[in-house]
Amino acid sequence: MDALWLLPSLIVVLLWSSSTFVFYFKTCFYAAWMMTLAVIAIPICIMRSGGRSIENMRVIHFLLQHVKYFLGLRYEVSGWDNLQEEGSYVIISNHQSSLDVLGQMEVLPDRCTSVAKRELLYAGTVGVATWLAGVFFINRRKTDDAKSVMAEAARTMQREEIRLWIFPEGTRNHTGDLLPFKKGAFHLAVQAQVPIIPIVFSSYSSFYIPKAKQFKSGTIKLKILPKIQTKGMTSNDVSALAQKCYDIMHSVFLEISGAANHSNGPLSD
After folding, report:
1. pLDDT tens digit string along 92-123?
2. Long-range contact list for 167-170, CB < 8 A, 24+ apart?
3. Could you tell me if 191 and 99 are in contact, meaning their C-beta atoms sit under 8 angstroms apart?
4. What's this model's pTM, rounded to 2 decimal places?
């Protein structure tokens, strides 16, 4: 019994004295709490919409609003006016970690869902909840499958006037810079003839460094940029469009992250 009383005291001491313990504690708590929230979300989504529906993203949005406080994170959002756009559009943003979903929830517009890697679909309760929220899942290892999903997403945008949030880097990036952009998001926007709204997250490297096992409290700057039109563009314009978006977002990333001396990366097919 005495040992049980000592455990909370030990945890408190470690939280104050060991950055490695804080890293693992926060990381494990975040994963476990997200799965727990998904357990709550699943029956609500089913009762609310009867199954898979983009309207269920409102449930996810509501349930995740408080998580940032548990992790000691704060968001400074600028450019809100740029998100007051009617109709369908594609949001693109840089991708640093699973924490990005909390930033998404800060600014997520109505009728907006995401494109995610297929592996997320098998992530237990989180996978079920995201499927119910209308997330499109792509198999990054099979180009034809990924193109098929993106084409279906474009048709859905035109038919149902939804918005899609895509991470054009294609994978999480802990380098402190932007990875080359893959072109799927830009093909989709051109095919659907909808504008692109870039959103840039500042670097997490001042508080979240997985290799160094650091996860401190921190402030994330989130900047919403003016829309970039695609009307009249064809597949021949995709490379230039992707490069334009990369250059704009890279410049803003350096500005809001206080970084310097980063070089522009090439585009990725």
Report:
1. 999 999 999 999 999 999 999 999 888 898 99
2. 167/92, 167/93, 167/94, 167/95, 167/100, 167/115, 168/92, 168/242, 168/245, 169/94, 169/95, 170/95, 170/140, 170/268
3. no
4. 0.88
